[in-house]
Structure formats: C-alpha cells, structure tokens
Design goal:
Blueprint: E1 3-13, E2 19-29, E3 33-37, H1 44-51, E4 59-64, E5 67-68, H2 73-77, E6 80-83, H3 95-105, H4 112-121, H5 137-149, E7 155-159, H6 167-182, E8 186-191, H7 194-200, E9 203-208, E10 211-217, H8 218-225, E11 227-234, E12 251-253, E13 258-264, H9 272-281, E14 286-293, H10 296-308
Parallel strand pairs: 3-8, 3-9, 6-7, 7-8
Antiparallel strand pairs: 1-2, 1-4, 4-5, 9-10, 11-13, 11-14, 12-13
C-alpha cells in the first residue's frame, strides 16, 4: 500500500519556547484509518494543522501526495479535507449552499449531483434547505464533514469529530467513517474516546508531549502490549488471599467471592495450570473461570505514563 502522507523530523516551537512537536516521523498509508491518541496538549492539533498548511513547521518536511505542504501548498491542500474541532459555520446559510460554497473555494466546478450524494450519505438531504442556525450540534458536525468532502479530497482529517456528541450519533459517525474508507478515502482521526479508535482504526498512533511514542497496527499493538486477566469465581468467600498463593499477586474482587490473576500473553507460560493446582491444594473450590483482554484504554494510559517518565 502506497503512503499518501510522509512526515520527516517535523518540529514546531511556538513563541516563548514551547515545543509542540519534537521530531515527529510518520508515514500514512493510502486508504487507511489512523487514530492519533494523546492527552490535551500532546500535539495532536498542531500536527494536523501543520500537515494542512494552517501552521508553518519550524523544521522538517511534510509531503501529501508527493507535494510539499510549504513549497507546493496549493497542490497539497487540494488533496486534504479538514473537519476542525470548533463548529464555525455561517449561521444563516442554507446547508446545501454552505457545502457547495466550500467546493467552489477549491476551484472545483459546480456539481449538484455530488453535493446531493454527500448530503444523503451524511443524512443531511432532508435538511438541505434548512439554515445552519436551525440545526442541532450533531447535525452541524455532519455539515462540517460535508464541507470537508465537497472538493473530493483523498485525505480527510477529523480533529475530535465526536466531541460533545451523544453516544448514538457517535456510532453513526463511525459508520460514516467506515463508508468513506470503502470509497478509498484516507482518514486521520484524533480523539479522546479510546473506544472510537478501538472500533474503527486500522492503526493507532500515540502522541505525548510533542513526541510520537509509537504507531502500530491496532491488533498487533493489543497483542504485544496487552495483558489478559483470569477471574476465578469461588464457591466460598475469602477475607484475604492465602499466604501460599502470594507469589501469584492475586487480587481479591467481588467482595471476596472471586480472585483475579493477571498474566502476560507474551510469556512462554501463563502460570495458570500451576495456579489452579495450588488453589486446589489450598482447599479453595472454584465455580467458574473467565478471561478478558486488556482494553486499548489501559494500554494507552500505560504508554503515556512511560513517555512522561
């Protein structure tokens, strides 16, 4: 798969000396969904703004479709659609006019059929003659996406697209992103919602304090860094973990009605067989056993803590 975005040693320092980006290197594949995760102030928005040509880089380079975002700004920018965090729309403009106007800003000829397709895809067709001021917050976010798609970009940046949106609408947005990927659009998503990245991303990038800590396939990341937990439900309640089991670092949960054992999926041995034998030797009777994988949120928090150390 070809790379459509190439970022090399990208740095940005603002007046006052704040380093927002510290030598970021990143290749983004054509047609993938990349989720950028990071806490507030991590550099996510600065990175997107620099790629989109809104912020000038201090040093380093960014190529979009082979075009340098500084020296070949127009060629690079026409390949990019941007959905910003802030809802900044002309309140008294009609929805269809707002979207069509954005297409014109990129020098594209009128294409009513395309605008209709985009509005239908985003469930905005019934609202095409409504003025923006009449729309709900969720519908306004859909208009932002429609505007970003109006000039048929190859790369779409979504900067916190579901911030402040209810759960139902958030899932609708996930479906929209999946549809756009099917059409071949490359999507770069920044989000605070870990489940969003876990649900729709192909790769996960973690950024903290202006540094890209890693970029990895989602499944590989979770397999490599994830831990599994074994919950052992007990027939009789325990008040404490017996001393003979202390080496397993068991956690007493469910008000003493269960034990939780955490093990590394990468280890040669999980220790489960020996643990079950020792439980039996200690006279502890089990009623059920269940396992669960570490969530992406737990992995993310761990990575950020390591990066800050």
């Amino acid at each position: 798969m070809d790379n459509i975005v190439e970022i090399r040693d990208l740095r940005k320092t603002y007046a006052g000396g704040f380093e927002a980006l510290k030598g970021v290197n990143l290749s983004i594949k054509k047609g993938e969904i990349l989720a950028l995760l990071g806490p507030n102030g991590a550099g996510k928005t600065t990175l997107i703004s620099t790629i989109c040509g809104i912020t000038n880089p201090g040093s380093g380079s960014v190529l979009v479709g082979g075009h340098d975002v500084v020296t070949q700004y127009r060629d690079a920018r026409r390949l990019i659609g941007l959905v910003p965090q802030e809802i900044n729309l002309e309140p008294f403009s009609k929805v269809k006019d707002t979207v069509a106007f954005s297409r014109g800003l990129f020098g594209k000829p009128r294409n009513p059929a395309l605008i209709e397709r985009i509005l239908r895809q985003l469930s905005l067709w019934e609202k095409r003659d409504a003025r923006v001021v009449e729309l709900s917050g969720g519908m306004k976010r859909r208009v932002l996406i429609a505007k970003a798609l109006s000039h048929e970009p190859e790369v779409l940046f979504l900067d916190e697209p579901t911030a402040g949106v209810d759960v139902e609408l958030r899932k609708d947005m996930w479906d929209i992103v999946a549809e756009l990927k099917e059409l071949g659009t490359t999507i770069i998503l920044t989000t605070h919602y870990i489940e969003e990245a876990e649900a729709i991303a192909d790769r996960i990038g973690v950024i903290s304090s202006g540094q890209l800590l890693l970029v990895e396939e989602k499944a590989e990341l979770m397999a490599r860094l994830g831990q599994k937990r074994l919950q052992i439900d007990l027939q009789d309640k325990l008040s404490a973990v017996p001393d003979v089991l202390v080496e397993y670092n068991l956690e007493l949960v469910e008000d003493g009605q269960a034990l939780r054992y955490t093990y590394d999926t990468r280890g040669e041995r999980t220790g489960i067989t020996r643990l079950l034998g020792d439980l039996a030797s200690a006279g502890i009777t089990l009623t059920d056993i269940q396992t669960e994988q570490s969530s992406l949120e737990e992995i993310f928090v761990g990575l950020v803590k390591e990066g800050a150390a």
